[in-house]
Amino acid sequence: MALPLKLSVLAAIMLLGACRSDPISFHTLTPVHQGAGVSGADIAIESISVPPQVDRPQIVIREGNSGLAILETDWWGASLIDELRSALLDQLSNGAGQQRSSVRVDVQRFDSIPGQYALIDVKWRLRALGAPDAELLSCRSILQTPSGPSIEELVTAQQNNVKRLAAQITQAASSSRGCPAAG
Hints:
The protein has helices spanning 2-19, 80-92, 151-174; strands at residues 25-27, 43-49, 58-63, 67-76, 101-113, 117-128, 137-146. With 183 residues, the protein is α/β, with parallel strands linked by helices. Strand 5 and strand 6 (117-128) form a beta hairpin. The termini are far apart. This is Membrane integrity-associated transporter subunit PqiC.
């Protein structure tokens, strides 16, 4: 009777050990501020859209030419739309409360390839508050940052892309020269 009991206990322990899952890591597109990183503009965000394939809590990476992988243990702190909104608000607001422009952001591509690069392809429309739709400034930014092999490095590369996007939007809002040069 003791041997079957020992085998049952051993089997139960092994089964419980097999059910153990890796912990979930949460990531954000809002970087830690080091010093004063205020943009000098206060731009309202009208709307943000992203491709539905990547708008989820789990981080989605590209695999090969046509594959996508949904990472089950690496998640955004919120949906990708909410992460982008939070990161852009952080970069576009100086806290003065006087919003002079608004922007609509339409992400065409949000590619993350560990060990290669992070890419964000965005169409955005900037409008001075109170101006008619005929005075919209429509621009496109394709931003790519090299990335190391880890998810942490990939997220940091995407943070850099969002920071550069915010800088381009701020530059366009602060000047009358139209869309900023690519880069």
